[in-house]
Amino acid sequence: MSKKYDTPLLDELKKGVFPSFVVEMEKAAARSDMAADLLGQVELSYKEKLTHWKHGGIVGVRGYGSGVIGRYSDIPDKFPGVAHFHTVRINAPSGFYYTSNALREIMDLWDKYGSGMTNMHGSTGDMILLGTRSENLEPLFAEVSSRGWDLGGSGSAVRTPSCCLGMSRCEWSNIDSQAITYDITQHYQDEMHRPAFPYKFKFKIAGCAVDCIASIARADMSVIGTWRDKIRVDQNEVKNYASKMDIKAEVVDLCPTGCITYTGGELTIDDSNCSRCMNCIARMTKALRPGVEKGATILLGSKAPIVTGALMSWVIVPFMKMEPPYDEFYELVDKIWEWWDENGKNRERIGELIERLTFPRFLKDVGIEPHPAMVKEPRRDPFFFWSEEDIKR
Ligand code: SF4
């Protein structure tokens, strides 16, 4: 099919080794004027090095203050298909499990009311439906919600909580991250749909410190599964590993707290100094297992670089039992929000507020006891760049 616009700059983006979003947009453009005009406008933006999106007033659905992000073209005469191009966030299920029927249902609705293009998933965790008109929002929402779906969070609100696959696929998960995510979502419905905070607040829940959801770099509050007692060691399996790997180099020397010794074919762990990082367990999955007394470490304050640079989370509670009805957890969250609400400036994330007023002040005001696991300042850089040498090894 012939293209509506020439897009030489976008065509360049189809040449790399990775799948290109331009290819997907072109597929959508074959069926949708919105997608076709989007290609034209994006090409023009690349050429002029100028965005042609503008924000223009609040858009949304009745009863909700969030879930729809308004977007308009500033050159609608040229590209009428994207005169309105609002984004709709759909609350994704915990762990991103869908049946194919459920996905078809949403995609059929999106073909009917929107551009047919999606972003699976946005970094907040929602299913992101890209591009619809204002007058389509209410009928879309009526159909979506009548099928049991709901909108996600946006703006200065609780954002849609998200988690790793947890116990559904991973035997190392120390907490039921999916059940906790569902409970938080239900508990904070009002805070998610009706923005009332200084800025956004994200929860991410990981089953263990491997942190497959990257909560420690991306969530205002991370809940990371851990254990309080001792790592369980199977010495017979340790012997099996000894013939397959260099235990000293790959496990003992990489323990960040240096609390493992390996002598006479036996592995010993000084659990009082273990930081529960999961490195040794992930490398010797048959020989080592987390302890049996499970719970979570609660961390606070990470965010992407927008105002004062990237920030990773502080530990605020080294160990908390995470069992329904999660009263201790919700009491803590409510106290933290109250402090943020009283002291936070407009568009100030909780981590930035702690930096501005200091961590000791935060602990004192919120009534949390200091603990050696609370470092003065968390790491700034959430990225690790591999050198060529590392890859060769
Ligand atoms: Fe060391 Fe981490 Fe293993 Fe604890 S979990 S013993 S800190 S490598």
List the SSEs and their pairings.
Elements: H1 8-12, H2 21-29, H3 33-48, E1 53-54, E2 68-69, E3 72-73, E4 87-90, H4 100-113, E5 114-120, E6 127-132, H5 134-146, E7 162-163, H6 177-187, H7 189-193, E8 203-206, H8 215-218, E9 221-227, E10 232-233, H9 235-242, H10 247-252, E11 260-263, E12 266-269, H11 279-283, E13 288-289, E14 294-300, E15 314-320, H12 327-343, H13 350-357, H14 359-366, H15 388-392
Helix pairs in contact: 2-3, 4-5
Iron/sulfur cluster binds next to helix 11.
Summarize this entry quickly.
This protein is α+β, with helices and mostly antiparallel strands and 393 residues long. The protein has 15 helices and 15 strands.
Describe the structure.
34% of the residues lie in helices and 16% in strands. It has 393 residues and is α+β, with helices and mostly antiparallel strands. It has 3 domains: 8-146, Alpha-Beta Plaits (2-Layer Sandwich); 162-227 and 295-392, 2-Layer Sandwich (Sulfite Reductase Hemoprotein, domain 1), CATH 3.30.413.10; 232-289, 2-Layer Sandwich (Alpha-Beta Plaits). The strands form 5 sheets. The protein has a 5-stranded mixed sheet with strand order 7-8-9-14-15. The protein has a 4-stranded antiparallel sheet with strand order 2-4-6-5. A hairpin with a 6-residue loop joins strand 5 and strand 6 (127-132). The radius of gyration is 24 Å and the shape is globular. The model has no long low-confidence stretch (mean pLDDT 93). It binds iron/sulfur cluster. The site of iron/sulfur cluster (SF4) has 14 residues, from helix 11.
